[in-house]
């Protein structure tokens, strides 16, 4: 379920990134939404937007695309903070699950030791 929530959030961020790019392209030539991207199909534009959002949220950031205007940079700051929050929550949840598994295994081992003594 957590995976689908992350995927949905990435979809929303990608849609907003595409909207910001198309709007900024009218006012500023330095937008990430270049004429080469404008000529692609909407599916390819969405895939590029989703690719960029995923690399930003996972802090990989290949560097092939970037936010060049002030609005794009502010939006990317929000996306990066959200990505850091999501992955820290994921790490915390995973460590909590592993810790509870370890406690359950220790309790089972203690009960098995008790049974072996009987």
Q: Any idea what the CATH architecture is? A: Orthogonal Bundle
Radius of gyration: 22 Å
Low-confidence stretches: none
Strand count, sense and barrel status of the largest sheet are: none
Q: Structural class of the secondary elements? A: mainly alpha
Overall body shape = rod-shaped
Number of helices: 4
Supply the number of structural domains: 1
Distance between the termini: 43 Å
Multimeric organization: single chain
How much beta, percentage-wise? under 5%
Fraction of residues in helices? over 70%
Q: Helix and strand succession? A: HHHH
Q: What is the number of strand segments?
A: 0
CATH class annotation: Mainly Alpha
- Overall pLDDT metric: 86
CATH topology: Helix Hairpins
Describe how the helices and strands are arranged.
Elements: H1 2-27, H2 35-38, H3 42-57, H4 70-117
Helix pairs in contact: 1-3, 1-4
Description:
The chain has 118 residues and is mainly α. The protein has one domain: Helix Hairpins (Orthogonal Bundle), CATH 1.10.287. 80% of the residues lie in helices and 0% in strands. It is built from 4 helices and no strands. The relative contact order is 0.11.
Short descriptors:
mainly alpha, Helix Hairpins
Brief overview:
The chain is 80% helix and 0% strand. The chain has 118 residues and is an all-alpha fold.
């Amino acid at each position: 379920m957590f995976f689908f929530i992350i995927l949905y959030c990435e979809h929303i961020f990608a849609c907003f990134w595409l909207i910001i790019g198309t709007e900024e392209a009218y006012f500023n030539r330095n937008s990430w939404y270049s004429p080469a991207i404008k000529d692609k199909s909407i599916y390819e534009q969405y895939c590029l937007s989703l690719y960029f959002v995923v690399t930003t949220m996972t802090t990989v950031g290949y560097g092939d695309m970037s936010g060049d205007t002030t609005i794009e940079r502010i939006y990317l700051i929000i996306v990066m903070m959200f990505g850091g929050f999501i992955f820290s929550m994921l790490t915390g949840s995973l460590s909590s699950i592993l810790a509870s598994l370890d406690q359950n295994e220790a309790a089972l081992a203690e009960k098995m030791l008790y049974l072996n003594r009987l």
